[in-house]
Amino acid sequence: MTCMHAGYGVDLFPKLWQQVAPLFELRMSLMMALVLAVVFMGPSPNMAAPTGVTDEEAFDLENYSLNSEMDWENLDVNIYGDSYDYDDLDQEIEVGTVAPDPPSAASLPTAEYHEEELTLPPAPFTLDFKGPGLFGPDTGLGMPTCLLCVCIGGSVYCDDTGLDQIPLLPKDTTHFYGRFNNIRHVKNTDFNYLNQLQSIDLTGNQISGMDEDVFLSLPQLHQLLLADNNLQSMPELPITMKYIDLRNNRLISNGVHSEGFKDMSQLEFLYLSDNKLDYIPVPLPLGLRVLHLQNNNIQTLYEDSFCNSHDRHFIRRNLEDIRLDGNPLNIQLFPQAYVCLPRLPVGSH
């Protein structure tokens, strides 16, 4: 059915059906539900038809047909809700018009291309011993010292970590422990700028050589442990030393500096046992308390080995622990060598 309404030629049937069909289907569903409720539940006061109207009159079930056709020509569309005023349509609808062609790819807006700025890797790290660092400088293994080793306060523990050289230490290191590694040589640059370093322990390595001035740049160094290595000579040490341990090396007397301990006024402990020394390294500082020289090759003592040959009243009161056992020496043959001592040395009689 074609209808002309307000000057527009339009086929109203599809539009009316689109509006009416849902309402019609909803109404039919409600009616069927009501019928089924009455059939299965029986009459109810709340669902009863008005007084004077029988169920047959209210629901003409005998004459109702679900397959009956709707009289569309006489259908009143206003019974299903608000009507629409098609005069308000802004766009003219023409019968038989074709949908417009889809826009071409060339006419579609193109996404703007944003060039991302390339982030370059940081410049190579330049080691700064004087600069701050949370984990210390990188080691020769390519990782910070305090990740390879254990750093607690100013102490750095690198024991038994497979090191073959001294790692670069944080500048605030006070105590360094590099025991039981594979270090063979110690360079004079290994402890640069470590002005707070007080103690170095390299026990149990394979050190056979050291640069001569390796320790002289350490103004606060007072403890050095180099036991159980392969040293034949010892480097020059700062006069601040208090504790020196060179046990079980290959030290020979010519490898010890002449008068190398004389000016160490704070030296108290000197351990030189199990080496190849031929004589006692004199003169010894007055503050020395412990001197261990057992298991060397010492064959003789001199009057001024411990005492002062020019002062008969001189007494070395502090030196109470002297060990000379294990040497080819009979200490009874040299009584003048220890008359100034508070105790006799331990050795063969």
UniProtKB/TrEMBL annotation:
Keywords, sorted A to Z: Disulfide bond, Extracellular matrix, Glycoprotein, Leucine-rich repeat, Repeat, Secreted, Signal
Keyword Signal belongs to the record: yes
A single cellular component GO annotation: extracellular matrix
Pfam families associated with the record: LRR_1, LRR_8
One GO BP annotation of this record: bone development
Superkingdom field: Eukaryota
UniProt xrefs under SUPFAM superfamilies: L domain-like
Domain LRRNT as annotated: residue spans: 145-175
Location(s), subcellular: Secreted, Extracellular space, Extracellular matrix
InterPro entries: Leu-rich_rpt (IPR001611), Leu-rich_rpt_typical-subtyp (IPR003591), LRR_dom_sf (IPR032675), LRRNT (IPR000372), Mimecan/Epiphycan/Opticin (IPR043547)
UniProt xrefs under PROSITE patterns: LRR
Main location: secreted
Family indicated by similarity: Belongs to the small leucine-rich proteoglycan (SLRP) family. SLRP class III subfamily.
Name of protein: Opticin isoform X1
Native organism: Gymnodraco acuticeps (Antarctic dragonfish)
Gene: optc
